[in-house]
Design a protein that fits this description.
73% helix, 135 residues, elongated
Length: 135
């Protein structure tokens, strides 16, 4: 980070970028669209805002990838057919996958709040499990 602290405008945009993860509580697609919009609008606001918007977008894309994988797993379990569900393997698998989906959504929203608070203080935040799609 450079010697000057980020402006209030940059910190606000950075926090807004991270808070788009809360939109995942409504719909994962809305969260992704929100992250893209904030990234596009904030990339010319300064280096801090650009960096944090990129970080939030990368995490949002990572979360989307995880959610798609979970959704595919649910489809595979359901596609096994009624016999698989009657035997019992399907019901418990479906329950675990649903719980994983809910927990991933809640964890990403919580991480977004923590990141927004840190960005609002002018501190850079790095998500530990984000794939760096956008550089």
């Amino acid at each position: 980070m450079n010697d000057t602290s980020p402006s209030t405008d940059e910190r606000t945009w950075a926090a807004a970028a991270h808070l788009t993860l809360l939109l995942n509580l409504m719909n994962i697609c809305i969260g992704l669209i929100g992250s893209i919009v904030v990234y596009v609008l904030s990339r010319n606001r300064g280096p801090f805002a650009r960096d944090q918007a990129r970080e939030a977008l990368n995490f949002q894309l990572t979360v989307m990838l995880v959610m798609v994988a979970l959704l595919l797993a649910v489809i595979i379990v359901i596609a096994q057919g009624p016999l698989f569900m009657i035997i019992g393997g399907g019901r418990s698998s479906l329950l675990w996958l649903t719980m994983a989906f809910v927990l991933a959504t809640l964890a990403s929203a919580a991480a977004g709040v923590v990141a927004a608070m840190q960005a609002n203080r002018g501190e850079r935040f790095r998500y530990p499990f984000a794939i760096r799609f956008v550089r």
